[in-house]
Amino acid sequence: MARTQVQSRINGVDTDFLCEPRQSVLEVLRDELGLTGSKEGCNNGNCGACSVLLNGRVVNSCCVLGVELEGAELTTIEGIGNPDKLHPLQQAFLEEAALQCGICTPGFIVSAKALLDAEPHPDEHRVRFWLAGNLCRCTGYDKIVRAVLKAADQMPEKV
Amino acid sequence: MTTTERSPYKVIGTRPIRPDGVEKVTGKAQYGADVRLPGMIHGRLLRSPHAHAYIRRIDTSAAEKMPGVLAVLTHHDFPAARDEMQELGEGAVNLKELSDNILASDKVLYRGHAVAAVAALSPHQAEEALKKIVVEYEVLPPVLDVMDAMRPDAPLLSETRFTREMTGQKSEKPSNIASHLQFKSGDVEAAFAEADAIVERDYTTKMVHQGYIEPHNATASWNADGTITIWTSTQGPFVVRAQVAEVLRHPISTIRVIPMEIGGGFGGKIPIYLDPVAALLSKKSGRPVKVLMSRTDVFEASGPTSGTHIALKVGVKDGVITAVKADLAYEAGAYAGSPVGAGALMMLSPYNIENFQIDGYDVVVNKPKTSAYRAPGAPAAAFAIESALDELAHKIGADPLELRKKNTAREGTRRVDGTAFPRIGHEECVDAALNSAHYRSPIEGPNRGRGVASGYWINAGMQSSVVAAVNTDGTVNLIEGSTDIGGTRASLAMQLAETLGLPFDVIRPTVADTDSVGYNDVTGGSRTTFASGMAVHEAGLDIQRQMRERAAKGWGVAADAVSYADGRVTLKTDSETKELSFAEIAKKAASTGGPIVGRGSLTARGAGAAYATHIVDVEVDPDTGKVTILRYTAVQDVGTAIHPSYVEGQIQGGVVQGIGWALNEEYYYDDDGRMANSSYLDYRMPTALDVPMIDAVLVEVPNPGHPYGVRGVGEVPIVPPLAAIANAIADATGHRFTSLPMSPRRVVEELHGLS
């Protein structure tokens, strides 16, 4: 199948890639660009493990086509924090033991970042509502919700 | 919260950040599906659309000519499997059934049963080629429910399966009942005759899935020298190695299994599905091959746990449970091996009951072969007995927790198999529940109710092997073979730090491949922190001994003249005290005898039983049937909590899986054996919005069988929730639900008499 050239900006870096029209953003990230932090749990938009920020909005990357990234700005887990300076969410996930197996963790952090970017100080119910698109099977969500609330405490007021 | 305030430990009981944490929160950790190798191609499997059929012919010729296709595989490519039982680290398995479940030979036994595989340059090319494979089936009627499968006229999954009794006797006619077991003591009928109150009910649960977010995966390279390397997400790399060796008839020492990070398992990632397929596709294509399951594959073709039917009769006299009669029938799936034995063994273990007869039936049906799921067999059994005890408590006017306390098992009480319990903590759990703020608070408002239930899990010991290598800078590399599914790098490193009297962060744990560490049984049975922890302790003592010997030699005294404590070796005489720190001895290793390496290798005995008692408040909407969990408290005897946060996490996670099992989750089949809800959208697992915070109360009754008192904690939290929630719904509505799930539809139908 013919491959299409796509120009996008991924994690702050201008990124050109070739993809088949049938390939999802998740496939492009994982198979073409080697960005394997976004995980495949279901490939039909139900688990949220592949959550990315497309032009600032949370989407399931398994449900967006690679060719739709033309001219788009994408943030994946690889673009959030780094080992020297973790994002407050990442630090809070570590301190609150908010991960067990860790496979859902990138999706939760991406999704929670979008929440805190828009609403720096959500309450517990708001966090639970926002994260209802991300499935975790290990933690029972308790420590994840606590970690997001803890990170929210450390977020600056929205300007 | 914990009930013990003063700890004799320095590292145990603290909450350090897990060593593998940063890699996981930054998306850098490598899970099985993340493997990329030079030249790697992609494998996909063709699966049966029928639940029960003979395979008459498979024609792969058109698929082989498809673009990008480098290899096609059917069962003919597998070596002939021996029809015999063998212990391969997962309990005894029949080698032919193991092989047939990976790629069907003559018959498909469930929808989703794999029949062929293709490897191609891209996953899409592999999927397109699968469509060109022609399989001729002779479709047979399926049998999908455990009670239907037990009927004499039921369709047989196998003409050569006979019912095996505990005595070894076999039935005269073939049957779907693979085996029957029995535990019996006392005079049950006489005890029922004298009982004050009796409850007699049938309870049913549906097949449910572990639901781990990461689908199964395997990447294999059949190397030029005939060795095989496998990268996979598994709970047991040594089980993968042993099973692949048997299925492929390949020497075990030439197979290397590299355990990648694992995205959840809960027992479901012990058996192999894809590994031999990836290996043979690699052999045929000459390329490394990665094979992934889709989510639908995971539901339809990996191993969920059994649907069950339990007929139960319980009698009490003067508040004492005097008689239990139980018939447990569990679905094994396509091949024998349900956890009915565990269910029968565990169901009465919180209590001291004199007269009982428990019969268990392991029954094959046209559904995927079940595998372990967190406390396998116990939740359904607890759903039955703990529901019945709740009803009995109401009948005799007793508080349901007081009834449990009055009948509790204690040290010396015999389990139904005759084994006497060592020190156990069920009574302490019930007491903590009775005294909890939750239980002492009122439950008010319409359609609201409270329920309680207890649970037991036996916990496993088994084999573990570790190596701890001391570095010259005073740090230690801990090489272990238990895959880390939820924080065990941390819990093992903490135990080594405690043994050596060192800070946590000088220990660097690594999960090694099967070529790089001694044999380890699976991460399962809640055994890793317990059993691998014992191996770690042994390795720490080994390092202590070597350090004492080296320091003593330097001081010119006998080794037993010096002592090791708090990370230093000390020589005390009347005239002087000499000391060398761990780091000082480590630094001089080269000149004092070479590298210091501690070793721990053992079969762990003395696994302490786990007990839990849960309290839940619910609200039932009588119009929609929706059940809302208002508050949940889980009390558990955890022995000693090594890392309390991860202990709480195990409890919270187990409870929420139990909530899903109780309220929503089920395999929903049509009459032809097609699973109608094989996606996360329709197989409705709890989301963050469906549950409240889960209050985990840690009771610490140290296990005398472990140097730090550890008990396995991972499994028992899923045992009580099913009954606790049913009991709460009964309290709220006055209606007793005996079938799971208590989904909105079922609740509405039963409350309004519509079913």
Can you walk me through this structure?
The complex is a heterodimer of chains A (159) and B (755). In chain A, 31% of the residues lie in helices and 16% in strands. Chain A has helices at 25-32, 88-95, 105-118, 124-130, 142-154, and strands at residues 4-10, 13-19, 51-54, 57-60, 73-75. In chain A, helix 2 (88-95) packs across helix 5. The longest helix of chain A is centred in the C-terminal third of the chain and has 14 residues, at 105-118. Chain A is globular. By secondary structure, chain B is α+β, with helices and mostly antiparallel strands. In chain B, 27% of the residues lie in helices and 26% in strands. A seven-stranded mixed beta sheet of chain B has the order 3-7-1-16-13-14-15. In chain B, strands 11-19-18-17-12 form a five-stranded mixed beta sheet. Chain B has a four-stranded mixed beta sheet with strand order 20-28-29-30, with helices on both faces. Chain B starts with 20 loop residues before the first helix and ends with a helix.
Short description:
The complex is a heterodimer of chains A (159) and B (755). In chain A, 31% of the residues lie in helices and 16% in strands. Chain A is built from five helices and five strands.
Number of domains of chain A: 2
The CATH topology name of the largest domain in chain A reads Ubiquitin-like (UB roll)
Shape of chain A: globular
Q: How many H/I helices of chain B? A: 21
CATH superfamily of the largest domain in chain A: Beta-grasp domain
Count of DSSP-assigned helices of chain A: 5
The CATH superfamily label of one domain in chain B reads Aldehyde oxidase/xanthine dehydrogenase, molybdopterin binding domain
Rg of chain B (CA only) = 27 Å
Determine the N-to-C terminus distance of chain A: 47 Å
Number of E strands of chain B: 30
Largest sheet of chain A: 5 strands, mixed
Order of helices and strands of chain A: EEHEEEHHHH
Mean pLDDT of chain B: 97
Oligomer: heterodimer
Largest interface: A-B, 63 and 61 residues
User: Biggest sheet of chain B, open or closed, and with what strands and sense?
Assistant: 7 strands, mixed
Distance between the termini of chain B: 44 Å
Mean pLDDT of chain A: 96
Strand order of the largest sheet of chain A: 2-1-5-3-4
Question: What is the CATH C-level name of the largest domain in chain A?
Answer: Alpha Beta
